[in-house]
Amino acid sequence: MKKFLIFALVLTFVVGMLLIGTACKEGEKEAEEATKEVGDITVVVIGKSVHPYWSNVETGVMDAKEDIGADAVFWVPTEEDIAAQISTMETYIAQEVDGIAVAPSDPEAMGPYIKKAMDAGIPTITLDTDAPDSERLCYVGTSNKAAGVEAGEAMIELLPDGGTVSIGTGSLTAMNSLERIEGFEEAIEGTDITVIEPINNDGEDSTKALELANSTLVANPDLAGAFGVYAYNGPAWAKAVKEQGVAGDVKIVAFDATDEHIEYLKEDVIHVLVAQREYFQGYKSVELLTLMAQKGIDEAMEEYGVPDSKIVDTGVNIVTHEGLEEYAETLEELGIPFDWEP
Ligand code: BGC
After folding, report:
1. Ligand 1 site, residue 206, Cβ cutoff 6 A
2. Are 340 and 288 in contact (CB under 8 A)?
3. How crowded is residue 62: how many other Cβ atoms within 10 Å of its Cβ?
């Protein structure tokens, strides 16, 4: 009995020491990871489609890369393609990069891969469009519901007597699109503006967006307004109203302010823009992920001022033809590059 007790005590001691040893090693590993040198850090930003909007995000990514000195990779599929986004996530998880920012075209489908990255010790955040039910650490981008409400309010001002409005979008799974539509519809509730069903969904294919805009105009000669949810939807509506000879008559409210949008705004073919700050989405994603690799997740989130909501709101501007000069000044103040003349 005595021998057994001694044996049990020795065993407990040995197991205890082993456990302490492992815990220390893990602690060291964490500390090691959290103090990575900036030059050894690689972060990845995965976008949604090839478009000047995403080129602006890429500029933000590359500027941050240069300013900070970490390596940053930017990738987008040609058009809405959740399968391609997932396989790209898997590639970078296997490469053990130091951080990933992803704009999921389908938050539910992407959820398990965000978890996979987090389980592999890769801090993962979302940008442009969120996946709040996933394990992502935070979201960097527009508050899309609120921005959708602003779009709806702009339409109410443009159509004080009401009328039929059509909505064109590139996704009916991505959260940013759904929230913008929800916000827009909430804003116009109780007014004489009615939305045509179904909503046009082009899957982020700009050729299809134009076809859908044209066929909607042909089928609805009394169309009073059009809402462009994604960056190429506004220009698609603009081209279509020109082709159908109703430019100016159909009031267009559109997200984003690429050079093409600005041209249509100057021509008074598009009437109001909800301009996102996509440059910041790219820049801030790289900044925050790099900080996480340098200092660990908690310290980085605190230092960066990520709020409890886990939403880093990059903000929007409501832009009209008359307000272009002011908008240009705002961009200059914010340090967002642009190459159009007001
Ligand atoms: C959206 C992106 C989309 C882009 C181009 C933007 O308005 O925020 O999610 O990929 O338009 O379609």
Report:
1. no
2. no
3. 15
14 Cα to the center of ligand 1, angstroms: 58
Q: How far does the centroid of ligand 1 lie from the alpha carbon of residue 230, in Å?
A: 5
Type and span of the H or E element at 84: helix 82-94
Q: How many whole angstroms from 194 Cα to the centroid of ligand 1?
A: 24
CA distances from 87 to 106, 211, 257 (A): 14, 30, 30
Beta bridge partners of 200: 168
Q: Give residue 238's identity as a one-letter amino acid code.
A: A
Q: Please, what is the angle between helix 233-243 and helix 259-266, to 10°?
A: 40
Taking phi over 0 as left and psi of -120 to 50 as alpha, with beta for the rest, 9 belongs to alpha
- pLDDT tier for residue 26 given thresholds of 50, 70 and 90: very low
Asked whether the beta carbons of 277 and 257 are under 8 A apart, the reply is no
Instruction: Of 239, 213, 230, give the one whose Cα is nearest residue 171.
Output: 230
Strand partners, 127: 140
Q: What is the pLDDT of residues 28-82, one digit of tens each?
A: 344 445 679 999 999 999 999 999 999 999 999 999 999 999 999 999 999 999 9
Distance from C-alpha of 302 to C-alpha of 307, rounded to nearest angstrom: 8
Report the run of H or E that residue 111 belongs to, with start and end. Answer: helix 107-119
Tokens of 81: 């393609």
